[in-house]
Amino acid sequence: MRTVEPLHLRLLRLLRDAGPASRAELGDRLQMPRPRLLAELERLVGLGLVAEAGLAASRGGRRSTLVELDPRLRFAAVDLGASSIDVEVVNGRLEPVAAYAEPADIRSGPKVILHRVNELLHKARVDGAYEKLDGVGVGVPGPVSFRDGVPVSPPIMPGWDRFPVRELLTREHGCPAVVDNDVNIMAIGERHGGVAHSIDDFLFVKIGTGIGCGIYLSGEVYRGTDGCAGDIGHIQVDAHGAVCSCGNVGCLEAVFSGAALAREAVAAARAGTSPALAERLAARGVVTARDVAEGAVEGDVTCIQLIRDGGRRVGQVLAGLVSFTNPSMIVIGGGLAQLGHILLAEIRSVVYRRSLPLATGNLPVVLSELGPRAGVAGAAVLASDVAFGEAS
């Protein structure tokens, strides 16, 4: 059951998502008595969260005064990938005012990576993007204790186990911080401003260096008791498959992910079964998932088959989830979403074939609308929520 949110949180989210509004409009939309609403607005003005925004357009009578989120509000959104750092500073409406993206190896450890994040945020301040931050949201590519703000035994993040990420960022920037896993923040971003906008029950599947699933149920992210719900990359799909980074055998992530696809592509190139991949390997000495995507577009049969095999594996896992959760939509994102409609068609085919007709009769399976921005978009939403929540 959805929790009842405090008035101030609903009010601030409404101004964030819908923009400036008159007091009368806010009262109607929130169904709150005018005296209570006015008192809450006055309190939020005093806290520096809300400000007057001029007069509304004339409708023939007296023009009402609009209120908006304070234009000085700033939130930091950080999406840490296995091989990248994406940072944005956004205003109260979650519109970017500064953005930085660069390659980075998450295996460098938390001190190195978070030091670089702080350097980028301080650069944004020096460049005039903000005077102070009001909240920081961070996504990391591994399991997270959302309650404690720390990664927990992340398979591809050596040195990060129980590292106090939230505490460090709160202390560094003097504002509340929140930490979640990368697929959850992508799901949050997609629901806020992407193809799943306002859909209450959906699955967001990230296929990249790892594979994970963000689960939205009844309008809220479902994280599970300890924060590791949706870790579908470690569901076994092949009892005789490759050893996974988690130590088990035949996990979905071990047989189809960025690294697994690159491994299969190299094998196909060396065996001579794929002219497109053999040509790229000879030219550059390496082949990647992008090379498989390009080879498939060129009609290379082996590349197409590699993508279909991966889509079939993902579809098998998703079919079970569809029967279990009965979502309204499945969104596919992450780096391997670049494999495009061959991957999507195979996932759809398996899900529709293996799930109950009642669960798939109105079930769109679509590509992410936000693409690589989904992570920072979701981190910005979380950053604003944690800042607004502390306005109690």
TrEMBL record:
InterPro entries per the UniProt record, alphabetical: ATPase_NBD, ROK, ROK_cs, WH-like_DNA-bd_sf, WH_DNA-bd_sf
Oxidoreductase among keywords: no
Keywords, sorted A to Z: Kinase, Transferase
GO molecular function (one): kinase activity
Protein family membership: Belongs to the ROK (NagC/XylR) family.
Protein name as annotated: Glucokinase-like ROK family protein
Organism: Micromonospora palomenae
